[in-house]
Amino acid sequence: MRLDEDKIQKHFSGKIFDIISSAADEMNLECYAIGGYVRDIFLYRPSKDIDVVTVGKGIDLAKAVANKIGKGVKLSVFQNFGTAQIKYKDLEVEFVGARRESYERGSRKPFVEDGTLEDDQNRRDFTINALAICLNKNRYGELLDPFGGLEDLENCIIRTPLDPDITFSDDPLRMMRGIRFSSQLGFDIEPETFDAISRNKDRIEIVSKERIIDELNKIVLSPKPSVGFLLLDKTGLLELIFPELVALKGAETKDGVGHKDNFYHTLSVLDNISLKTDNLWLRWAAILHDIAKPATKRWDNRLGWTFHNHNFIGEKMIPGIFRRMKLPLNEKMKYVQKLVGLHMRPVTLVEDEVTDSAVRRLLFEAGDNIEDLMILCEADITSKNQDKVRRFLKNFQIVRQKMKDIEEKDHVRNFQPPIDGQEIMDIFGLAPGAEVGRLKSSIKDAILDGIIPNEYEAAYQYLVKKAATIGLSPVK
Ligand code: ATP
Ligand code: MG
After folding, report:
1. Whose CA is nearest to atom 11 of ligand 1?
2. How does strand 111-114 pair with strand 83-88?
3. Are residues 141 and 176 in the same domain?
4. Coiled-coil regions in this chain (predicted)?
5. What does pTM read for this prediction?
6. Residues 138 and 169 both lie in one domain
7. Site to substitute for ligand 1 among 118, 167, 177, most atoms within 8 A of C-beta
């Protein structure tokens, strides 16, 4: 079958394709575009990453292509892998020789031999990723689809080309990839393929944490991430890679009082937030906002089920989870911790009689992340009762207005107390120590509580008075 003229024009024309085609012909090499680039044409997802496979030495073809392009091309050769990459304008083209792979049980790194196009298609993970388009002149645009990948694309199906048990056992990362594609594309995993994931789930242990988290993050960033998380759960993979999330499952009832199932609640919050933001870390805050509920769950005869301090305990659990999953231990993690720690606060500002001081304190503590915090809190409303949802959302609108009014008036969001620690030491002739810290916080508190305005002179007067109560007076 040949690709229609429109698609050839749109996706396989231009200087780089002309050059690849003529270089391959001159060298007498069969040459194909393959994998994700071809798949994405049919999904109307234009991409700039092109994989080219040639029956012969991929590196040699890449060198010839780079020579022909001349100016503006960047060639990188990876001799050990038998691959080469060309960057030209906004395109990235990977060249590789067609290969046959065989695996050993302990590793997902295959033993590689030269092979035919067919061998190369056999080693691909899914039928939709095994499509190839010929780039040689006389067969330009010919589609090679040995496993019915096109039909699977039309029917929105993820299926392995060969026996799924072998495909997944050989390289268990493919299980994560399959679920990731299902979540990204909204495709179903064909039952045989799905069952094989369940059967081979324990093989995930030979995959590095870094590769697992790459795929998990792609699931988190997919349009409706619950699709991927539910598949991970159903296949048993989630328990292995993220047991803390599975621990949220279950809704206990005592004396007729129940609580919600926090696993499904968390997935709804994640789906909700994904409608509002593509920020990976804000989505992670949604995943982790209730992570300490199992650890903090108690039954109280008067209050029913309680989860006291689950926000703070959750904040403390995050570094351990990030470390194990090889998520970054930097300011991204701190941001997630901060949102999880603060996620119960905005709702306390709903009441009419809430003080300006409480609003100022939250503005100060959340700083620039206040909008993200509000997005998280709004996503956290998952009641099935639409009236309730509307009422809660309206309450948060009121909180937003209160914060806006106060910020305009007092500018506390990112404020630094007007007198810092060094100056306090200079004024009173103090050495560094706890006293300095206490005096400094007393100024901050006085400003947040509205006792004094956020100005130098007022802060100075206040400081002198406060210091006098502990027997200190200015030395200059
Ligand atoms: P995306 O680029 O959207 O992440 P992709 O399918 O293009 O998805 P790449 O990692 O770019 O993924 O890989 C390109 C192609 O290489 C795939 O389409 C597939 O044919 C093949 N491939 C990648 N990883 C594997 C794997 N683990 N097992 C088998 N084939 C793979
Ligand atoms: Mg790709």
Report:
1. 36
2. unpaired
3. no
4. none
5. 0.92
6. no
7. 177
